[in-house]
């Protein structure tokens, strides 16, 4: 131990806490603008890849955030970043050189924003709040780092890495998987760690979001007069109903953690015409990619069996992207919990994490880069994907909780920047958990791992 090390460590901790307070103050100072941004997105709900109003609001928000010291230090905004309704906003901090003038490699921190809505019920999943939280956290981190630049003090350490703060606007989480398309386009290749947070009914650093595969099933039969000569027809609706019932019977042999749910989208045009066309849409979900390949095969057999029994032709069309399960990162989650508790968050206990959550394209992100996807309470017990949650997501009450979550994310990002061991632990957690997932997938006897695209996703980073 160096003679002055005992003094430096407490000094570092105190300075880091000061930076966290500064980040929180910056978020509070921007609270009106952030609330306005959230409300603007909430009041004009848009579906996947059609979020043009929300996209414009987000890009205006960052383009209108000048630096208090220099216009050159403002956000650099790329409005149509790799996708029409995606965007990227960047800001750079130069860091603190060491005694010999050397500069540490930069840490590249990303905050992710979502802003698409659900058909019919608008922002019933609170993506307007996700956008607000991501934007707020980025402003808080930027403000804290600018405080170092303006301060006469040397900063929290004699040497600190440069920092790239990036905000990615990621469209189409509810349908299509915008983050997956951005992964394919290389949008995450120059980031080291990513943060986002999702509205829920409680504060949780991690919930087990599951892998998901969606499939559209089309049955083609033959029309005929349903009363005069039905024997001339081939009933596509019978195939659809039989497939639906096949899956219902399959549930007896499904694991309790598997989910199958779907709808009949087309069942004919008139009662006296044998339905010549029917269409179903189903979502299949499991806790892991390995199990998803097993469930997918079983479901496809149910669909094909219905076609064989009725004499219909069948066409199976998978969605454009598989949603991977979200990988945990214990080191980042622990830091987030510590910061959240300082702000008054009451986190659910680990023994309450056995239940399943939904699915998100952040799962695919978690396979290519360390990050966290915590959930946060918004002041309501309403359930996601309901009209009641739409109301709650646009309420004034939700603002306190959204801002608090933004502060916790910004504070955790500061820990990553100024605690080098945390970044290394997060990378190690990422490596170990992803490797375990890959090994489990390769052990699958059904040989469908490559079909789910895990190899391609992991190869990008």
From TrEMBL:
The organism's place on the tree of life at top rank: Eukaryota
Protein family (similarity comment): Belongs to the peptidase M20A family.
Protein name: Peptidase M20 domain-containing protein 2
Stored SUPFAM superfamilies: Bacterial exopeptidase dimerisation domain (SSF55031), Zn-dependent exopeptidases (SSF53187)
InterPro entries the UniProt entry points to: Bact_exopeptidase_dim_dom, Peptidase_M20, Peptidase_M20/M20A_hydrolases, Peptidase_M20_dimer, Xaa-Arg_dipeptidase
Family annotation (Gene3D superfamilies): 3.30.70.360, Zn peptidases
GO MF annotation, one: dipeptidase activity
Domain Peptidase M20 dimerisation, residue spans: 215-307
